[in-house]
Amino acid sequence: MNSLTPFETAEPDEDAMVEDLIGILRRKMERDYAAGATKRDAHPKHVGLLRASFSVEPDLPLHLRVGVFAQAATYDSWVRLSNANGTPQSDAVADIRGCAIKLLGVVGEPIAESDEPGSQDFLLVSIPTMPLGTVKLFHDAIYYSIERSRLFFLAKMLLTGQSRVLTELQRAKTHPTSPLDIRYWSTTPYRFGTDRVVKYSLRPTSARRSVLPSTLSDNYLSDNLQQHLAQADASFDFMLQLRTEPAAMPVEDSAVEWREEASPFVKVATLRIASQDFRTAERDELAEALAFSPAHARVEHRPLGAVNRARMRIYKALSDFRRQRDRRTAAP
Ligand code: HEM
Prior knowledge:
This protein is of the alpha+beta class. It has helices at residues 14-32, 135-148, 150-159, 163-171, 220-231, 281-289, 306-326; strands spanning 45-56, 74-83, 97-103, 120-125, 184-185, 190-192, 196-204, 234-242, 266-273. The chain has a single domain, classed as Catalase HpII,  Chain A, domain 1 (Beta Barrel), CATH 2.40.180.10. Helix 1 (14-32) packs parallel to helix 2 (135-148) and helix 2 crosses helix 3. Protoporphyrin IX containing FE binds next to helix 1, strand 2, strand 3, strand 4 and helix 2.
């Protein structure tokens, strides 16, 4: 069990559920992939791995100058854009989309769980809240869908009065014009210094936007990404939302939206993605070799809440597993 901060409380059986999840997901990876070609259990299909720069805003108000945002600086970064579905599938299938950012060359104290002390990662998805907001819900979704069948999971949710989770998961799956055109959210909370808690979001700001093709091909997202970056740079505002109303903004349930009317997101950095050719064998290999994790964090940005505590252990166990199985090295 990770140590708890004053903002957190542990779920009953959390440790046992995390251990169980690691076993289930590892067995699934062994079943689905031959050794030498092991993909991530979640978000296995990358739409593109991009070189980027992450520039902290100059002249931030004093109360926002925390951790990597303490002073104006620009970090070389990797951005991995992905489809969330646990099995690689056509871009034409509606899905939740992922955006993982890795800041390189970060100085300062990493959290004890980090195995990449020079990295600060931010993992985001294309929905503001995570309908599977607790470890128990994630555990049941994964256990029933993988070890039994998807129908078991659907039945379990319906019989326990949680059909809302199913509706929200379905609504979260979309066909965007391009991964550069949509907004992303962390859904889970993070520490902000010693006494505050935040969530993160990315807002697209590129002048150029893509068009949805009349027929969606298997790799239309990657095609649109490539066309965009062949012609123009792309950019996003990186923003954070301070937790101002603890009762209405829980740390332990990522399904609850922190209302923007109560606490608006504020811009703290710019993510710039310069025009580039990312469709190369070297880039594809690096996309498989890298590991993004909430645990790659400075102490000021420690991941909070049960889902994040679980993720720190699960991502470490499974990224180690796929790298060892495929004899890949870990350096970002
Ligand atoms: C207990 C809940 C969760 C489990 C079990 C889980 C599981 C995983 C696993 C196994 C990976 C691949 C790790 C690797 O091999 O490197 C992954 C990747 C990812 N997860 Fe989760 N996840 C959970 C919750 C979330 C949440 C709440 C988010 C919201 C931001 C999220 C966003 C992502 C993204 C964006 C990636 C892709 C990272 C990359 O590009 O490498 N996950 N997840």
